[in-house]
Input
Amino acid sequence: MSVHKNLKKVTTHSLFEMKSAGKKISMLTGYDFSMARIIDEAGMDIILVGDSASNVMAGHETTLPITLDQMIYHASSVVRAVKRALVVVDLPFGSYQGNSKEALSSSIRIMKESGGHAVKMEGGHEIIESIQRILTAGIPVMGHLGLTPQSIYKFGTYLVRAKEKDEADRLIEDAIALEKAGCFAIVLEKIPADLATKVAKMLTIPIIGIGAGNGVDGQVLVIHDMLGINNEFSPRFLRKYNNLYEQMMVSFQNYISL
Output
């Protein structure tokens, strides 16, 4: 049942108002028209066209291989389905690191060619110049700290980040820098719950967690994980809301047997 009639279109400003009012923000990934339409009609606040499409849609081991053209394709499909949610699009690996002019060019392409509403990029102080340049074009930016999958080969593991004081202090400094630079929200991935809660209380912009406890302003999950379509991924933080792998398997086998 659609809830569009009762809910206004989500904007970066309304997300700020939700945090100020203590209302939790809901966020899921989406990569195609059909699924995005259902997510949007359910009343989701944010749909993230994540570079996780590299994993769940294309079968790659990491998020690194997906290209800017492919992200624009997925984002375009999602935008055509959405009437209410804010659509945030990941800047893929290689489209912004170390070059603020390229970061702006990539962001402009995403906004013009897909119709997305904002971009998301991983990193702290090292990407501040790129964030500021993107914002000069009027493009909203969401930050991403903690476990940053595009840097997986640097980390060498998907385990929890910022458990040590030095790294935790750097994360806090990066979060403050991202807010000052103009980010409208930040995703914190796989960091200790008490650290995520501390950051959420310190900053006025929304903090969205994934594997970062419930003391943040909202949560994000990969849709294939929370629906149980991907039955090989079961981290401790993941709450599955269905087991579509089994349901779909039974449906397909019933069809075959007819």
Q: What stands out?
A: Residues 4-226 form a domain with the TIM Barrel fold (CATH 3.20.20.60).
